[in-house]
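Q: Okay, next protein. This is Extracellular solute-binding protein from Kaustia mangrovi. I've checked the sequence twice, so it should be correct. Can you predict the 3D structure?
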Amino acid sequence: MGFTRRDLLKSGAAVTAGLAGSRLIGMGSAQAQNTLSFEPEEGAELRVLRWRRFVEGDERLWMENTKKFTEMTGVPVRVDSESWEDVRPKAAVAANVGSGPDIIVGWFDDPHQYPDKLVPVTDLAEYLGGKYGGWYDAAQRYGMRGGEWIGLPLGASGACTVYRQSWVQEAGYETFPTDYQEVLDCAKKLKANGHPMGLALGNAVGDGNGWTHTILWGFGGKMVDEDNNVVLNSQETVNALEYVKELYENFIPGTLSWLDPNNNKAFLAGDVGATINGISVYYAASHSDDPAMKEIAKDINHVNMPIGPVGHPTELHLFTQAMVFGYTKYPNAAKEYLRFMWEKEQYEPWQQAAQGYISHPLDAYASNPVWTDDPKNTPYRDCVKNMLWNGYSGDLGYASAAAMADYIVVNMFAEAASGDRTPKEAAERAAKRAERYYRV
């Protein structure tokens, strides 16, 4: 996909103890300005690689905004998309060989794997933070390294519990619970009524990583401590694994091989009564022309991810940010494209078209009407504000990115849930895998 000249002629408060909360970065920065622009280089043209859309409105508005950028600047932009699983390896190859797309919209802490291969975007990030209420803490952690912004956070495909309201009420709950033990009780009752839960335990970039990390941290477990020492083999981790092993007994069969699309399909087919997912399930049902899907949409509801014994949100969401690669011939054009796409005039309509599929990293966008026009969207609003970061509570870098890419936490939960290993054995094996990356 892309637009060329020829086409156009045709047509908050700081967090403590590692908890990422509502800390806002960039407000009042001396370098932040009310206006900023970058003059594209003579003859500039851009190639952008991003993840393949899960909701139609995301891609449609992204391309419309891209077309507006080309009309305004005369810079042709080609946009390619890849499956979620393929973006990360393609970005790594581009960094290593020194050629490829000028901009890649990738996952989590990918920029921290090859920071010296990227164009710093500090001026752009400080401008946006100063203009739009500041960056949430997790966004800053993902975007910055050594005092420089090496990535520009786009937001996160936020995850909430997606459930059938009527089936949960039949199970004895007015809304799906957020307490871990009540979640387990509700899951048992849903299964007894023929509406089991289903959560991805395959190597799913978003769904598998998201809910398993959330449960691990909710029990107080974590891969590393603040000094990046591997502490995964702990009683807290074992407790989390024992809990998920019991929860898994109430899942629909097959979740050990589920990737990101599987729970969407199972939910819309009526095979599961609850899952953890982005708003894409509701989007698909509510935007369908099928009367049966419209009826399902009326029965869908959302609630924020469960809270464990630690007593506060421990959410992980599929974070995405843009990287400008150092081999680009047109760094100014690349930064001007990103500035344009992140400005309110483009960003808010894009969020609205995607029905809040991406939760924002900048506080000003919390007032986007998309979050309140339909109350079912509201739980997704604060996903980035509430989230922790992969590699919590250590530093982001090669080790955290590599451990995430190796699905250590997801595999650990899958092994324990399936009975391939005891919870203790699964924790021990996962810790050994993590030590390969965190070895000093």
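A: Here is a summary of the prediction. The first helix runs from residue 5 to 10. The chain has two domains: 41-158+316-386, 168-314+392-438.
Q: Noted. On to the next one.
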